[in-house]
């Protein structure tokens, strides 16, 4: 792939968890390929910094289950290779209607060994609901993880922070990137991993046919103490979960906020309506948690029409590839998204 007339063989635009893992996969898997990883802000400061970082060993479709399996293995290997990564093992209990038992068995990975258990302490399980335990869950401080991956990448890739990509001009045999600094970069191929920054004039038109939208994502911080033995509680029917954030010593409650077509620059923090929606769910399932002082994190993420991550070529010559829109699962599926993006790049 190398060509001395270029600044690099590949530019990865966006240094969140997905962009960093794309860059890592290229330098590890395609030796001799030069990579520039470029971000308008610092590495990991987009959706990745706000992520709850929960990995649930499940998927709504065969493709997502394959991606979850691959990604779980990838993170396990990464933890074995790189000392001290902020990825934490986690017990997980799933609360769902009894009638959903067969669906749960299908959705959770075989390795999760989903098994009925006693109703968990501190959780109000409705009468026609039951509880199951699953293996293989973990969560990460995704910002810390991105920093660790970037630290490893630095000797092998050029990382440019605080520089926005403002234009993409494909030409025969390469792609020119215009930068906010007024400079240009000439590269062989580009992977766009911009998280929820879909509206950039640089790629808005190229990406529009994919139908990706941006949804607000809200999680409350519940300032109650956590123990290392506390388990995550997944409220399957509500697409919500309680997560003991052991590394920060408080709980997090993530629920599904249905506010669409927001922009990353317009996330104004928690509002009354977010607190009301979240508290209604806590009232129903976990009223004990209502006594804790509440704050939170509000940002957004990119969602695809079929709720599966998008990895696709945006130009006829295949030199510009998009990777993202992981529907609120961009941490847990990032290794598999990166694998698909690099496979596509090499075609
Ligand atoms: C509150 C919250 C909770 C979440 N919880 C979970 C969870 O429990 N589990 C899970 O798996 N996922 C979760 N997610 C989703 C997950 O965090 C995201 O899907 C994932 O971080 C997306 O990674 P990314 O690399 O695609 O995007 P980002 O991390 O947003 O990175 C994109 C980068 O692109 C850069 N960029 C954008 N435009 C330009 C430009 N023009 N030029 C240069 N750089 C540019 C940005 O600065 C940014 O750093 C959560 C998200 C939120 C907001």
What does this 3D model show about the protein?
With 347 residues, the chain is an alpha+beta fold. It folds into 2 domains: 8-49 and 144-211 and 306-345, FAD/NAD(P)-binding domain, CATH 3.50.50; 92-135 and 213-303, D-Amino Acid Oxidase, Chain A, domain 2. Helices cover 25% and strands 30% of the residues. It has 8 helices and 19 strands. The strands form 3 sheets. Strands 1, 2, 9, 10, 11, 12, 18 and 19 form an 8-stranded mixed β-sheet that branches. It has an 8-stranded mixed β-sheet with strand order 6-7-5-14-15-16-13-17, covered by helices on one side. A 3-stranded antiparallel β-sheet has the order 3-8-4. Helix 1 (17-29) links the parallel strand 1 and strand 2. It starts with 7 loop residues before the first strand and ends with a helix. 46% of the residues are buried. The structure holds flavin-adenine dinucleotide. Residues 13-19, 38-41, 45-48, 50-54, 142, 164-165, 193-197, 200, 202, 217, 219, 254, 297, 299, 301, 324, 326, 328-332 line the site of flavin-adenine dinucleotide.
């Amino acid at each position: 792939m190398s060509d001395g007339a270029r600044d690099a063989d590949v530019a990865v635009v966006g240094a969140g968890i997905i962009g960093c893992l794309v860059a890592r996969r290229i330098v590890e898997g395609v030796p001799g390929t030069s990579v520039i990883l470029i971000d308008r802000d610092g590495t990991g400061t987009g959706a990745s910094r706000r992520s709850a970082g929960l990995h649930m060993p499940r998927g709504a479709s065969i493709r997502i289950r394959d991606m979850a399996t691959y990604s779980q293995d990838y993170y396990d290997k990464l933890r074995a290779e790189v000392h001290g990564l902020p990825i934490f093992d986690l017990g997980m209990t799933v609360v769902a209607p009894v009638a959903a038992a067969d669906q749960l068995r299908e959705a959770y990975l075989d390795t999760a060994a989903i098994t009925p258990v006693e109703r968990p302490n501190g959780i109000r399980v409705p009468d026609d609901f039951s509880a199951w335990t699953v293996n293989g869950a973990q969560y990460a401080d995704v910002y810390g993880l991105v920093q660790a991956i970037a630290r490893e990448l630095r000797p092998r890739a050029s990382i440019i922070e605080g520089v926005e990509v403002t234009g993409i001009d494909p030409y025969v045999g390469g792609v020119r990137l215009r930068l906010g600094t007024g400079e240009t970069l000439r590269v062989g191929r580009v992977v766009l991993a911009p998280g929820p920054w879909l509206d950039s004039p640089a790629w808005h038109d190229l990406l529009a046919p994919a139908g990706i939208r941006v949804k607000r994502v809200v999680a409350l911080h519940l300032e109650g103490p956590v123990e290392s033995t506390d388990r995550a509680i997944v409220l399957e029917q509500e697409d919500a979960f309680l997560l003991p954030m052991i590394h920060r010593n408080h709980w997090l409650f993530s629920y599904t906020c249905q506010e669409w077509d927001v922009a990353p620059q317009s996330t104004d923090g928690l509002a009354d309506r977010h607190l009301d929606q979240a508290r209604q769910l806590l009232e129903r399932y976990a009223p004990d948690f209502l006594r804790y002082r509440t704050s939170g994190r509000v940002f957004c993420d990119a969602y695809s029409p079929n709720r599966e991550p998008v990895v696709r070529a945006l130009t006829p010559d295949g030199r510009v590839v998009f990777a993202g829109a992981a529907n609120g699962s961009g941490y847990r599926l990032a290794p598999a998204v990166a694998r698909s993006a690099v496979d596509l790049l090499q075609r």
